[in-house]
Amino acid sequence: MIRFTALAFLASFLTTPHACLTEHIARAAQASTANDCVGSPAPVNNKFAIKNAQVFNGNGFQSSETIIIIIIINDARIFTVGGNVPPGINTIDGTGRFLIPGLIDSDVHPSSCSNLVTLSGYGVTTAINMACLNYTACSQLKGQLGTTDYITAGEIACGTGSVHATAFGVPPAETIGPDRDLAAFVDYTFGNGSDFFKIVAEDKGPTVQQQTTMVQLAHQLGSFAATHATMMEYYDQAIQSKADRIQHTPADGLLSKAQISQIRSQGQFVTPTMEFYRLAFANPALGPVLGFNASCNYSNIQTNVANMHVAGVPIAVGTDAVGSFAGVINYPFGRSLHCELQNLVDAGFGNAKAIQAATAGAAKLYRLYDRGSIATGMRADLLLLNSNPVEDITNTLDISAAWVGGIQVSAISAQKGQSCDPASLSP
Ligand SMILES: *[C@@H]1O[C@H](CO)[C@@H](O)[C@H](O)[C@H]1NC(C)=O
Ligand SMILES: *[C@@H]1O[C@H](CO)[C@@H](O)[C@H](O)[C@H]1NC(C)=O
Ligand SMILES: *[C@@H]1O[C@H](CO)[C@@H](O)[C@H](O)[C@H]1NC(C)=O
Ligand SMILES: *[C@@H]1O[C@H](CO)[C@@H](O)[C@H](O)[C@H]1NC(C)=O
């Protein structure tokens, strides 16, 4: 069923160049996926401790004498870091291992519970879903104990006649035209459980004035807005609108020093999704489909990310992954997040800084103050690694065990040495 939809969908995008393949695939998937959530596993132990692991503190690892105790009450929190293990508590030996917070994918499109399970198997404990196209389906993915925690945007604010709107037949009444009642639209998305607001800046997209208004409306409701922008012209709109978050990186040129310092001084955060571009540029058939022209290349992506990082723009780790659609695209959940960490390191991030951008940095980005670091009161989203990722970033794949909200992930799919070569990902 999904495959059929995706193939029909492929036919539509091959004739319509557009800039966000992945959101469209997500729409196709979300429209067709039956609810496959089977309920959460009941926690078996109400308490456990991880003993003698080295604990990531944002900059590196501290002493191996650490004891973490987790008490499971619904969404389990870390009870204490340090001290002694009281008698009768199940203890996991972390000797010689490395404990980092669960990873957060700040731009991803899971559309089923099995997608969330795939993410968990790679230690991605939080997924920030970038487009909700069916509020009923999205609400079913929320709060699934023991699998990746799902945080979601609402319906995307895309322009009437824009690529995002036309390629997928978004009813005109749901798009942003000149007369759209923006306050009603923003209310409607939050009224249906959106965790934040999503805007698509593109050709025929909302005007800068409309984007600015929607950002302000989201603020009035105590939330924030993230804007999709993949080209220089639209990135500049996202900057001008003061959107709190900018998703992606301009592919067709280099941001000026002035633009980058404006991003920084306005307190905007950026999720570059380098992996999305790396895969797109590796596939000659995909570039034109995505609307890339001769001005677009991966070197622009790397330079923009490096320049923003050096200038102190807060960066989070996101992939734009959509999963696998047989014969169409394979942009795997989870594994891609580890590849994105490697891309950021290639762009000049230190290893610890990259991990920080996928944990505490991303938590700050999406205002998830209950996660992203290993401390008392934080969600027990944890990865126990066999080897040190601060020495070699590819070691984030060397997962010994993972917990989401204190519940151990039953099947780890990540493997040390797993390749990020696009050739290994053919559909
Ligand atoms: C939205 O999702 C629900 C639950 O998965 C499904 O029953 C319904 O058919 C979907 N609606 C549309 C328009 O696809
Ligand atoms: C939620 O969405 C439905 C349509 O799916 C709409 O009729 C309703 O008004 C929305 N609820 C709120 C509170 O905005
Ligand atoms: C590529 O597209 C961008 C955005 O539409 C445009 O600004 C640029 O001039 C184009 N470059 C070429 C070589 O066509
Ligand atoms: C990438 O594209 C830019 C134009 O956007 C061009 O100046 C630059 O030389 C290109 N770099 C590579 C490595 O192709």
Question: Which CATH top level class of the largest domain fits?
Answer: Alpha Beta
Cα-to-Cα separation, first versus last residue: 17 Å
The unique ligands bound to this protein are: 2-acetamido-2-deoxy-beta-D-glucopyranose
| Count of individual beta strands | 17
- Secondary-structure arrangement, i.e. CATH architecture of the largest domain: Alpha-Beta Barrel
The domain count comes to 2
The structure class reads alpha/beta
Overall shape: it is globular
Fourth CATH level, the homologous superfamily of the largest domain: Metal-dependent hydrolases
**Over the alpha carbons, how many angstroms does the gyration radius reach?**
21 Å
Mean pLDDT: 87
Low-confidence stretches: 1-20
Helix content: 25-40%
| CATH topology (level 3) name of the largest domain | TIM Barrel
Strand content: 15-25%
Question: Quick recap of the structure?
Answer:
The protein is an alpha/beta fold. It has 15 helices and 17 strands. α1 packs antiparallel against α2 (21-32).
Can you offer a commentary on this structure?
- One of its GO terms (molecular function) is hydrolase activity, acting on carbon-nitrogen (but not peptide) bonds.
- With 427 residues, the protein is an alpha/beta fold.
- The chain has 2 domains: 300 residues, Metal-dependent hydrolases (TIM Barrel), CATH 3.20.20; 88 residues, Urease, subunit C, domain 1, CATH 2.30.40.
- It is built from 15 helices and 17 strands.
- The strands form 4 sheets. Strands 1, 2, 3, 4, 5, 15, 16 and 17 form an 8-stranded mixed sheet that branches.
- Strand 10, helix 8 and strand 11 form a beta-alpha-beta unit.
- Helix 1 runs antiparallel to helix 2, helix 7 crosses helix 8 and helix 10 packs antiparallel against helix 12.
- It is globular.
- The N terminus is likely disordered.
- The structure holds 2-acetamido-2-deoxy-beta-D-glucopyranose (NAG) (4 copies).
- The site of one 2-acetamido-2-deoxy-beta-D-glucopyranose (NAG) has 5 residues, from helix 6.
- One 2-acetamido-2-deoxy-beta-D-glucopyranose binds next to helix 12.
